[in-house]
Amino acid sequence: MDQIATHQDSATSQDWPVAIYRTLKDFSVAQVSYVPDAGHSKLIKLSHADADIKTTVLTTEEEGVALSAGAWLGGDRAVLLMQSSGVGNCVNMLSLMASCRFPLLTLVTMRGEWAEFNPWQIPMGRATPQAFEIMGATVLRLENPDDTEEVISAAASLAYDGDQQVAVLISQRMIGRKKWTKETH
Amino acid sequence: MSAPTGTLDRRTAVKALLADRGDLLVISGLGSSSYDLFDAGEHPGNFYLWGAMGGAAMVGLGLALAQPKRPVLVVTGDGEQLMGIGSLLTIATKQPGNLSIAVLDNGHFGETGMQLSHSGLGAKLEVIASGAGIRNVSDIADMAGIERFRNSLRDLAGGPRLARIRIAAGEVERALPPRDGTYLKNRFRGHLGFQVR
């Protein structure tokens, strides 16, 4: 029995990961890589369960940037999942995407903003949009679960058709307040 | 304590690796590895990195997963691989049979003034790769070893593999490949039959 972090269920944190998954499928995404985050856990499970998506766990986020470049070279569309704390790790590797105009779609669950209890998460959370923007990436916000399909779809078009690097920042409010609970796994 | 450097000439070694390359796709790490690959012969199935230090093996993984029927070779240096050392663990989780990594190990950071690298100070990349879960590792110090490694590349069930190739630390003349990334990307995708839109 481990103590793990879960998130309180609320009316606003139900099925948006499923909506993301469906939208990624609509865009024929064939590779997903991630550094785990509780906010992405449902999407990660869906991805691993899908035999048509090659799902890769990373040791650090910039690996997923380089992986996305290689996937594109080989004809695959890739998505990188991370939490905001990992965005700073990617800065230099984003130069690969800018130099070659590689598409990058990354979905970032935010920490350090809405009801954050851990002060150590706040500086990188606060710097997250700028960390992308200084490298030329476009930052979109997903604040409302009802907008999920529309925002992810817009980001995917911008990335895969427009050859841009696009980060969708998923509001911490959507993920819910962090609670420590005991669960058996 | 510094590990003995090798005696293999890097250009000769890479040329031999690329001989009769067939449908081999190749990613090279920044610096001398990209020059070596270019010197071995221009090819649209080459993608030269000019930056993104630490990223070569992961670009190789993304490509290998997307193109499981093509052999993929990453040619890089000890310093470049050391910066992305975690990628060896990530590659091992996927066990891509078609991915091979050739680390040209001279124990030094060659582009920046020949400072000793961690490899030159004793780290053994092939042992690290093995510990990470890379199935097939080798430590190559002669041309016979290069030839064996080259012959193994087309066995798409035998990877992932990593070869530490002991090269001499001397400077060689620069051979500069194209450095327009968008051109290299589109050329590579065109080679694989993807339309450039």
SSE blueprint:
The complex is a heterodimer of chains A (185) and B (197).
Chain A: E1 2-7, H1 16-26, E2 29-34, H2 41-49, E3 54-57, H3 61-73, E4 77-83, H4 94-100, E5 104-109, H5 122-133, E6 138-142, H6 148-161, E7 165-170, H7 172-175, E8 178-183
Parallel strand pairs in A: 2-3, 2-4, 4-5, 5-7, 6-7
Antiparallel strand pairs in A: 1-8
Chain B: H1 10-18, E1 25-28, H2 32-39, E2 46-48, H3 56-66, E3 72-77, H4 78-83, H5 86-94, E4 99-105, E5 108-109, E6 115-116, H6 125-132, E7 136-140, H7 143-152, E8 161-166, H8 181-191
Parallel strand pairs in B: 1-2, 1-3, 3-4, 4-8, 7-8
Antiparallel strand pairs in B: 5-6
Helix pairs in contact in B: 1-7
What separation lies between the terminal Cα atoms of chain A? 7 Å
Average pLDDT figure of chain B? 95
The arrangement of helices and strands of chain B along the chain is: HEHEHEHHEEEHEHEH
The structural class of chain B is alpha/beta
Mean pLDDT score of chain A: 91
Report the order of strands and helices of chain A. EHEHEHEHEHEHEHE
Explain what the structure shows.
The complex is a heterodimer of chains A (185) and B (197). Chain A is α/β, with parallel strands linked by helices and 185 residues long. Chain A is 38% helix and 25% strand. A six-stranded parallel beta sheet of chain A has the order 3-2-4-5-7-6, with helices on both faces. In chain A, strand 6 (138-142), helix 6 and strand 7 (165-170) form a beta-alpha-beta unit. The radius of gyration of chain A is 15 Å and the shape is globular. The termini of chain A are close together. Chain B is an alpha/beta fold and 197 residues long. Chain B contains eight helices and eight strands. Chain B has helices spanning 10-18, 32-39, 56-66, 78-83, 86-94, 125-132, 143-152, 181-191; strands at 25-28, 46-48, 72-77, 99-105, 108-109, 115-116, 136-140, 161-166. In chain B, strands 2-1-3-4-8-7 form a six-stranded parallel beta sheet, sandwiched between helices. In chain B, strand 1 (25-28), helix 2 (32-39) and strand 2 (46-48) form a beta-alpha-beta unit. The longest helix of chain B has 11 residues, at 56-66. The radius of gyration of chain B is 15 Å and the shape is globular. The mean pLDDT of chain B is 95. The chains are: A alpha/beta (185), B alpha/beta (197). The A-B interface holds A 30-31, 54, 56-60, 62-76, 78, 92-93, 95-96, 99-102 and B 25, 27, 47, 49-56, 58-67, 84, 86-87, 89-90, 93-94, 181-182, 184-185, 188-189, 192, 194.
